[in-house]
Amino acid sequence: xxxxxxxxxxxxxxxxxxxxxxxxxxxxxxxxxxxxxxxxxxxxxxxxxxxxxxxxxxxxxxxxxxxxxxxxxxxxxxxxxxxxxxxxxxxxxxxxxxxxxxxxxxxxxxxxxxxxxxxxxxxxxxxxxxxxxxxxxxxxxxxxxxxxxxxxxxxxxxxxxxxxxxxxxxxxxxxxxxxxxxxxxxxxxxxxxxxxxxxxxxxxxxxxxxxxxxxxxxxxxxxxxxxxxxxxxxxxxxxxxxxxxxxxxxxxxxxxxxxxxxxxxxxxxxxxxxxxxxxxxxxxxxxxxxxxxxxxxxxxxxxxxxxxxxxxxxxxxxxxxxxxxxxxxxxxxxxxxxxxxxxxxxxxxxxxxxxxxxxxxxxxxxxxxxxxxxxxxxxxxxxxxxxxxxxxxxxxxxxxxxxxxxxxxxxxxxxxxxxxxxxxxxxxxxxxxxxxxxxxxxxxxxxxxxxxxxxxxxxxxxxxxxxxxxxxxxxxxxxxxxxxxxxxxxxxxxxxxxxxxxxxxxxxxxxxxxxxxxxxxxxxxxxxxxxxxxxxxxxxxxxxxxxxxxxxxxxxxxxxxxxxxxxxxxxxxxxxxxxxxxx
Length: 583
Description:
- The protein is an all-beta fold.
- The strands form eleven sheets. Strands 1, 2, 11, 12, 14, 16, 17, 18, 19, 21, 24 and 26 form a twelve-stranded mixed sheet that branches.
- The radius of gyration is 54 Å and the shape is elongated.
């Protein structure tokens, strides 16, 4: 892909005295210009404007040469200073030459890019932002890849990439009152300043052309407002439209530029740049489209000069038309420079931790954050790639690599690992079957005196006498057991209900309750007073009445009770009776 660039045609020109051959008449002043290619500064493009009737040849100062080309391009293998000679050959055999030392350079300028070196995650984008002051520029990506289409733009590098911005940068403007905001000052002209245009060769610094000449178009300054130099040009070639003198440094490149628009479409202006009396650059032609601002520019090398007389001269000799306006003139240092920004593209990070998991008590699990080459920070501040989780909790890790960051987490639970086993003592009714049920295991083994009774989670028994059974299990956390289980007959016996009690605090016969051997099934006990009011009830075997009702001690007398119960083996029974409360 070709690099993106913007290139204005500009050539470095300076006025040199031709070295005439002895015995030959001096030739008319001549010179040559040059400019570096902004995309490849090793390439220098030359331009000659020799007098008519002559032929030329070039010597580029590095051993290279060219024949009669007026605009050759030469590739210098390295940067440096080179003495370039342009020779003119006349039919008379006379030879003149122009010699100058040129600097082929590419200066690192760390202020050309506002974007600093940075890091990105894969797939992320970055805005590359160039500074102002570049006139001709070119982007290049290394390795090759997409670049911004303008001085600034967004890129999405697929890999670590260095972006180079090469261009021709201008310095401060040496022209005072370059935008004419100070009115008719800071320059001279062969034209006459007037407040009312009634002839050719006149100008006015103001904001409204139609107020100066009603026939002109209502154009505004280049910025949309403010002053401009409005001109009704004369048909005199070489007349100075604008002139200013500025100090310059020797052997330095400068840019000379202006903005221009036609104020009337007929016979547009034709102007030329001149520096120290030598015409430089091509014709300046704003075109017939009035109020359409265009920029024109050229370059100049100061050589041995310490000042520059900057002139904009008329080159239009037609009387009608030639109405135009100038604005935002510029003359300043002009250098080939470059800057770069390195964008490190990190790898795409992958979430490393699995779904939530469980561990057995007393064990641990290694959590691996993966993404080799990254840095890590776990929830406790440790920085290893792996973390040993030995207890229940939430574990998290932040992974970083080349500006990329990813956070992942996992919840680790502890397995209960407690098998479900029958009660240590199981009771049975005579003649009935009994089922012992276990759970939470991967495998089971029921044994009695070394004999295997079964391997299922449940064991069915029909005991005729007390028995002792052992259960062994294999779980996810290892082998468990043996669990010793006793199978005994359910105790049964008569239900005894006292016929009197003496509530008090001596601890003897203080409560009234039924008494039975063993556990009762479906137990319910209630006591009523002589008026049939329920004064006590309970479903808890062994819980008795203390002789009070609603917190008030009841009087001595006879009370009725009802007890319902069964021993779990025989059918339930129901019994009414009376009890005497004695105080």
